[in-house]
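Researcher: Re-running this chain for the archive, since the previous output was lost when a drive failed. Same request as before.
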Amino acid sequence: MTQADEADTVEPMIHEDDLPGHESRLEPKPDWEPRYKGSDRLKGKVAVVTGADSGIGRAVAALFAREGADIAILYLCEHDDAAKTKSIVEGEGSRAIAIPGDLGDPQVCEQSIQKVVDEFGKIDILVNNAGEQHPDKDVRDITDDQLRRTFQSNIFSMFYLVQSARPHLKKGSAIINTTSVTMYQGSKALLDYSSTKGAITAFTRSLSENLVGDGIRVNAVAPGPIWTPLNPSGGKPPEELKDFGKSTPMGRPGQPNEVAPSFLFLACEDSSYMSGQVLHPNGGIIVNG
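Model: Regenerated structure tokens:
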């Protein structure tokens, strides 16, 4: 990376608001455990899951492992959570490696992908799930560093990872990106975050067009309000947490293990005729997607 690149890379905002948060400290704990026995739908596959230390990423890693995949857990700095996810994957009989690093840095992405290939020999599935959000009531309160950091973490990282993984993806591979209901509804307090989610949806559709001819499918999942460390660690003001998710038609927040099956469907051959699409596990919110 050049000196100019280094100057343009914004450091993680961990010290500002304790992001992205530890699941080990969260109460009540999110439900990540798969609900059903596996059926080898991902047997012999290798999956890279970003943000897999906690929340939706952990639930995806656990479910993919139950279905037979080996898992590369990419995460920022929550080593205790990542170790827990690694033990969950291994408890399902699959292999796992945990790789820390800031995915907003293209060199970290390149090095992480190389570690996966060195360990497992291939990559079949890339789940771009890592992200961050910071609430601001006034658009003028969004600092330049925050704006750059949110885009860097949420969408730049996806470009960097796809660029690094592309030589290893082949016919039958799948890429799944995490967008959000905020892309469709908007969010008055998450202006920069919802903007990145709009970019992710456009990236998903465009990348699908770019890769579908090579037999690589690209889809996305747009969760609604899901109980993960992202919410109490910066996603929602403390006074609003008690009502988190109550505005959905189902009247409650979702759990990570209610979202993970959407990722599994898009990763396996059940969705072999789908690309450029978005699934919406969001508690019944009607969106034009």
